[in-house]
From TrEMBL:
Domain MGS-like: 1-139
Protein name: Methylglyoxal synthase
EC class: lyase
Catalyzed reactions per annotation: dihydroxyacetone phosphate = methylglyoxal + phosphate
Keyword match Repeat: no
Matches recorded under Pfam families: MGS
Species this chain originates from: Candidatus Kurthia intestinigallinarum
Cross-referenced PANTHER family: METHYLGLYOXAL SYNTHASE (PTHR30492:SF0)
Record-annotated active site: 60 (proton donor/acceptor)
Record-level GO cellular component terms: cytosol
UniProt gene name: mgsA
Annotated InterPro entries: Methylgl_synth (IPR004363), Methylglyoxal_synth_AS (IPR018148), MGS-like_dom (IPR011607), MGS-like_dom_sf (IPR036914)
GO biological process, one term: methylglyoxal biosynthetic process
Domain of life where this protein originates: Bacteria
Amino acid sequence: MKIALIAHDKKKDDIVQFSVAYEQILAEHELFATGTTGLRIMEATDLTITRFRSGPLGGDQQIGAMIAVNDMDLVLFFRDPLTAQPHEPDISALMRLCDVYQVPLATNMGTAEVLLKGLQEGFIDWRLLAERRSASQTK
């Protein structure tokens, strides 16, 4: 699966700790991240990450573009809900794309843990479920 890792400045330490804790699971997947978040995770782990620009410089939009062409499977976006973000429209667009294309989106550590543990156990195969739903609707 292709997994995007994004974190606001005040949540970067959290996503780094999360990535260290779940490094074995994350290592089994293709990882993408916005600039500084990806760099910080790579410095703390042995994970290979394709890095995009930082969020305010278009990184959120680059990940959104992957979602729009059905090329992203899961987004872990540790948001800081208490701090105004200068690129809030980009963040809203990214979240909207996740909803439109039914891409699972975790905006906090608790939800991210549930998704990764489900992924590890084989409980989450949302693309297969979406294909089955689509096939049954065309009959």
